[in-house]
Amino acid sequence: MHREHATSHVGEYGRRRTKLDNRLRTPKVGAPPPGANESRMKLDRRFCIAPMMDWTDRRCRFFHRLLTRRALIYTEMITTGAVLHGDRARLLAYDMAEHPVALQLGSCDPWQLEQCARIAEDFGYDEVNLNIGCPSERVQEGRFGACLMAEPALVGDCVAAMTAAVDLPITVKCRIGIDDQDPEEALEALTCALERAGVAALIVHARKAWLEGLSPRENRDIPPLDYARVYRLKAAHPGLCVVLNGGIADLDQALAHCARLDGVMMGRAAYQEPWRLLAVDPVLFDEPARFSSAKSAAEALIPYIERELARGTRLHAVTRHVLGLFRGVPGARAFRRHLATEAIKPTAGADTFRAALALIADVDARSVAAA
Ligand SMILES: Cc1cc2nc3c(=O)[nH]c(=O)nc-3n(C[C@H](O)[C@H](O)[C@H](O)COP(=O)(O)O)c2cc1C
Asked: Which residue has the CA at smallest separation from atom 18 of ligand 1?
């Protein structure tokens, strides 16, 4: 059905689909199994793991998927320019085990976004997410990221171009506002434009971004969190899927927000203390955890490590994401120290990881409920 709208929609940008556009498409490489299309439209967003540049690469995502079957996982942000003109196969590669996985794009160009959404669909991604929350200078220079909070009509055009082109759900990750914007008005105007464009969900990092004077890192901590603004948004738009992001430290907090919203997105706490993810399935989905302990999850990573090493990946590229897995468990410091010194050596192999794991006390006393 969406495809029928595509032609008329493309016309809005004065751009017809050409043979070149078709060549930009790629053969289906990671397509999920039959029936996945329907389940994609019903993606459960109760618990999402945030897109984090340099952190949530494909190895990290594979590891996180070992810890939870149900979380919706996001890639790092990739610009549409990189997808269209860069080493696409490398940038968009992922493991089938990662499903459900969303591709996050950065751009302000409806036509490029439309092309990239098609490519994402061909690659088998489950969702495309547009980043309008990143305040970095580089992103501002490209006129995308958080500065798009000031251009709701353009963001609407971007989302409309994608929803018309593909069957995938198109979502947006935003802030509650930027600089001196009034979050009541700014977020409302954006939401109305996005609803008209057919957005499938809005993920709100519940603080403003200050575009000048703060680094991206400071912009994740200094502007105050305002969860109430996101609750009001949901109350005003009950039909819209609203996911809360920002400062969620544990699953108790996640559960509390889920009572008022459609879901939560956890970033730093998920990455820095990935053991918490083991409790996501039981606590939020009432399903058994994949592993009864962090140590058994880590052992299950070994075949993947062996596969990656055989492809020429350095051990550290996988194990750097695992460093926080045993935080608070006896032996955790020795585990981290061993990996920090040994996993970076060119000769490091799966045995290096096994040796690090042997330093962890066998009984991981922390219960899943503590997450
Ligand atoms: C290292 C790092 C990289 C990030 N990269 C992205 C990114 O590529 N796209 C994005 O939308 N947000 C990015 N973020 C922001 C997170 O997605 C999230 O909005 C933010 O960390 C707040 O959530 P938290 O308090 O749960 O960490 C990044 C955050 C961190 C810590």
From this structure: 267
